[in-house]
Amino acid sequence: MARAQTPVAARTRQGIKLSNGNNKSRVDLKAIVWRTLSIVILASLVNYVTSWRYKQKKAAYEAHAGTHANTADAVHDWTRGLPKNCVLVDWKSLGVRNAQDPWKNATEIFTPGHTFSHAEPVFQIFDRGFLDILGDAPSIQLIAENNAYMFAHEAPIWYPPTDEVFMCSNAGHPPSSLERTNVLSKLSLQEAAAKGTATVTEIQPIPTLEMTNGGTLFMDKLLFVNSGRGSTFPPTLALVEPLPPYNSTVILDNYFGMQFNSLNDAKVHPVSKAIFFTDPTYGDVGNFRPPPQLPRQVYRFDAETGEIRVVADGFSMPNGPAFSPDGRTAYLADSGSAWKGGYDSTRPQTIYAFDVDSDLRAQTWLNRRVFAYVDTGIPDGLVLDTKGNLYAATGDGVHVFSPRGILLGKIFIGSTSANIAFAGKGRLVVLAETKVFLVKFAAEGMSLDFWGMSRAS
Ligand SMILES: *[C@@H]1O[C@H](CO)[C@@H](O)[C@H](O)[C@H]1NC(C)=O
Ligand SMILES: *[C@@H]1O[C@H](CO)[C@@H](O)[C@H](O)[C@H]1NC(C)=O
């Protein structure tokens, strides 16, 4: 009772009133003190961690920003010893045009930091992070060229066991027409390694392929996405054997009985193995398909069960799809500025990112957001490396973005590339209509381990 006379007891009495229980009062007080103490301690801990993390991020940002500062020292620091075929593009020098420089017109190519000569493709470095991708001795090698027709347009598929790359010519352009499908060919990267250039071998028309425009590996086969020709030959997905006689099987040619518009490109989800493909209306634009009947959207097809569903819509021209290495993020190039056979630069030439619904059967594309808007031409084929960096085929070559959509650099070839394909570690094949380039650098394409593929030695 003596303790009841202390100030603590006075507060305890208030406690009594509040709690209506004599015995509980001291316990309550203790609990309140402890609770308050732990809240204070927890709050300061959270505050400490948050401010520590903020300081870390700020330091990282400042270190990064420093690389772009227009002070000779900051830039010189990491650009010292850049390989000859690399050009540093200093963002800060781009902010205001020099009085004598002409404005760039939407269809032209922008070459900051250098004047472009077709003889010399270059790596344009916009961010120090690009150096990790390039490594010590990056190169861009012209391995095949044929100015007679656009043989190297789309559907690049690297087949590891033979180290060959398949590709198709530009559908709707000669020699293809409403009367004739486009040309499928292949080249050998081993030949390119041995001789510096590779022979392009045309493959005899494969009966099920009509106006091929996209391709990717599916198990141990080539999956070709075909735009279709006229109304007699509908758009299809077809599997083709990678070796002669290249026999094939159509695995999809309709949506609930309807023909697709003109299927364009596909990627396989790294976890579910479902096929995701896009259906813009370029067949109509190119006068080799009837007017479209379906929206321009993205589909998911399970080749095992046959189930098909739409996972995203609302695009101008849905083009190249891609997934992050973990399959949780989807990307889509909207090439809407290539519009009605011409070019409307006010329409999207934008890469969007989505979260992929974690339900492996649904896999709806959620939370659409802008990933990047490309400055030249349209974004077309997209591929990712093992670190989640994204490579987009565009109007002046390949644009390389960090997983957050920051432009790290360009593999600048000065003309359009419609699609690209990694050929394992350190090699990227760039299709450029009448040319094929082989880029050698430090990056590695998303693993094909899920198909159990290994490269010919
Ligand atoms: C842009 O440049 C192209 C080729 O030089 C030209 O045909 C076109 O008229 C120009 N457009 C504008 C808006 O200046
Ligand atoms: C090609 O033919 C072989 C032998 O008939 C068959 O096992 C294989 O599945 C065929 N491949 C395709 C893609 O149709």
TrEMBL record:
Keyword Transmembrane helix applies: yes
Coiled-coil region list: none
Keywords, sorted A to Z: Membrane, Transmembrane, Transmembrane helix
TM region(s), chain numbering: 32-50
Matching Gene3D superfamilies: TolB, C-terminal domain
Transmembrane helix keyword on record: yes
Domain SMP-30/Gluconolactonase/LRE-like region: 257-426
Domain of life: Eukaryota
PANTHER family, A to Z: PUTATIVE (AFU_ORTHOLOGUE AFUA_1G08990)-RELATED, SMP-30_GLUCONOLACTONASE_LRE-LIKE REGION DOMAIN-CONTAINING PROTEIN-RELATED
Protein name: Calcium-dependent phosphotriesterase
Lineage: Eukaryota, Fungi, Dikarya, Basidiomycota, Agaricomycotina
